From TrEMBL:
Its EC number is 2.4.2.7. This is adenine phosphoribosyltransferase. Homodimer. One of its GO terms (cellular component) is cytoplasm. Pfam families: Pribosyltran. It is found in: Cytoplasm. It comes from Picathartes gymnocephalus (White-necked rockfowl). Pathway: Purine metabolism; AMP biosynthesis via salvage pathway; AMP from adenine: step 1/1. It is an enzyme of class 2 (transferase). Residues 69-162 form the Phosphoribosyltransferase domain. PANTHER family: ADENINE PHOSPHORIBOSYLTRANSFERASE, PHOSPHORIBOSYLTRANSFERASE DOMAIN-CONTAINING PROTEIN.
Amino acid sequence: FHAQCSQRLQSPRMDLCHVPATREKGWYLALMAPNVKGPNYAWLDPSRLYCHPQGLQDCVADLLQPFQGDAIDMVAGIDAMGFILGAAAAATLRKGFLAIRKAGHLCVQTVAQPYTDYSGREKVMEVRSDAISPGLHILLVDQWVETGGTMRAAIELVERLGGVVAAPLRVPTGVAAICMESSEGGKWIQERYKCSHCVPPRLQPRFDQHQ
């Protein structure tokens, strides 16, 4: 797997046809591309994974597997890359999709929540106020959970509107992302909500260290 990762990450062009004979969980992580533009960008670009048809299908299937049999009424994706996985998950589940937006993009009544993103910038997130009714079970999806600030803001918005991300004595809906780093914020989310991600345990330390 490590050799495959190195080979794929060094490849200048995408191979959209190759599928390994044995597709273990996380094989598609090798499709992601490393940062070549410096410290102002994320350390890894998952968007190449989305271009690979089998890789995207397997990624979504792995994210949804822990929630098989759970009550999910709607999938919510976080602006912006969470829209891709969230919409794919919603289509797979045949559920509706709710976009949780950065402030200033919705022309309807909204509920807002300030937050600090992974880069330390102060931002505001919004969601339309008419989409979530009390007791609605929401699966929150984003591309990545690094410091956890963005996801916590999304959880706050859903719960303020009465949606259920997790609840005692009930089957919880939860949180899904390609990677959930073992940061303080990432651990806070994983301790309180049912979570799903795609990184095998043996690779988690490398992802936590951005290697």
